[in-house]
Amino acid sequence: MTPPAPHEPTRPRRTGAWPWLFALALVAGLVLELRLGEVPLDYGAIWSALLGESDPTTTTIARLRLWRALTIAGTGASLAVAGVLVQGVFQNPLAGPGLLGLSAGAALFAVAALIALGGAATKLDLLGADLQTGLLVVPASAFVGSMLVALVVWKLGLAGRRPSIPTTLLLGIAMNILCAGAQQFLQALALPDWEVSRSILVWSFGSFEDRSGVHALLVWLGLAVALAVVPFVGRELDLLRGGVQDARALGVDELAVSRLALLAAAASVATSTAVCGQIPFVGLIVPHLARATFGRAHRPLAFAAALCGAAFLLWCDVATRAAGWSGALPPGVLLALLGGPLFLYLLNRSRREVVAW
Amino acid sequence: MVNATGRLAPSPSGRLHIGHARTFLVAYWRARSQGAPVVLRIEDLDAGRCSPEHVDGVLEDLQWLGLEWDGPWRLQSDGLQAIRARAHALLERGLAYPCVCTRKEVALAQSAPHGDEGPRYPGTCRGRYASMETARAASGREPALRLVVPPGPIEFVDQLHGARAIDVQAQVGDFPLLTRAGEPSYQLAVVVDDARDGIGEVVRGGDLLEVTARQVLLQQLLGLATPRHLHVPLVVDAQGVRLAKRSAGLTLAELRARGIAAERLVAAVAASCGMAPRRAGAPRDYVDLFRLEQLSSTPQAFDSEAVSFYPA
Question: Partners of A71 in the beta sheet?
Fold first, then answer.
């Protein structure tokens, strides 16, 4: 006997040309990232440099651009996938790794690790140098922070109960305040050591500058973890959307599913936060964009969100670079400026829902 | 937790003399007294003055002194690719530019007299060429790479000499990152290598106090942490003349040849740092006695006669 699907919209929507358009945007974004920069290089020069058939200057510059582009794409994808997973677990379209405090938790623990390493944030961006301890300690610590926040929000707001949108969001606000306060406390402690403080400050703005292959690898590892988990929780999250009781009746272990999904989200948030600093709103906005075009079934949605997230963040960066603001407008700041109004728009659109709380 | 990792960074352009010994001992004591490791990096980038036999000589001198370091020592030239890549990354960010001026042209452009630093670079090539390629094509010369130095003072703190503010643009102008032969400048190399080795505290000779501002600027532009600095006053001979590498009679090799025990020199240096000299004291025996506050900020007079007064 086939169980009746509790909600029809989980069936994949006819997506038409959208996936191709997003894929095209992603490729175009990557190509533009390779092309844009202070040193003018045409496509042929970039290509031969990437193949290692060029002078050291061009080779270095082409590689820098490649690693940078891959880091950005991986970060956008990671945050978007984390957003899909978190929104799935909390069954709340206004949840996101940022709003729930996952990013803040990652940032808090990353800062703690940076201080423990004596401001060795800077070890994070050594071009082509050996693997440094900071490279692994900071993301690992960020993962712990992100995971802790996820567990707290989940335990207090969800476990075994019907998810309540206001409760999870308020919990997220509380976690954000807590983490931000603790981070400021740590920064205040580190203030006498100006160099450590400066490196934390620079890191907290977020940056895509001077990325190396190791950075790109780290971000893509986090993304791979998150995407690898999606096939195991996608269908279950779809079923949970129809209600915990129904899902249980269909054999869904909602505890295990939520735990696994949050673990995956925390991993991808942690690696991207550790490498690029806190980048807000991508995890909130991009899943909406993906849902609007790819439907609500979690498996295709997560992969679609990865595609959209990568393209989205690449184009944000291309736009700032083309406008010549890349030095003055760190990605974290840009996304906050961009994401705030978008969030207001979303809230306004779902006003009826908000009033119903 | 403060990163106090120190370094010994001799350059193999000759044998070490008493002045070097004092700087390296202070560097060693400073790091070890804070429970931090010391790394040994031999700065052999100046191909014109450094040679492999001097590398052996420097190692021999350091070992004779009884200095210890953590991990294997390495040559700065081993990390050449990473250093060059940093210069190219600055070019890509618009913070460096190709320059085809020769030394002579720079000197001619500057009518005012200049010190031993060489003339200030007036920025002739700034904004002239978009890439190394165009510079090469337009001038027919291999271009060097210079940093865009912002106007105004660069501030840093030395633990012995206090706060400093140095206007690098007024002093040397846009200083080179890579020479026309593609060799990294000392400033760039030392900044990249200090970051690579995770150095938290730089202890070196007082003659480098002024150029520190250039390194601080580079650290800021490259997003690297600035280590703390301690510039140890130079050692002068009995006549008050600064010891250069060439000053005969005061190299460690010569002291050794004359049968002076390393422990005597270590004791003499320890005394000059405000510690009570000990009999048969190796550098490690003074680690617990070392206090930064005891260090004088004025030049220290030393000669081989004085050294022989101290216990072996």
Answer: none
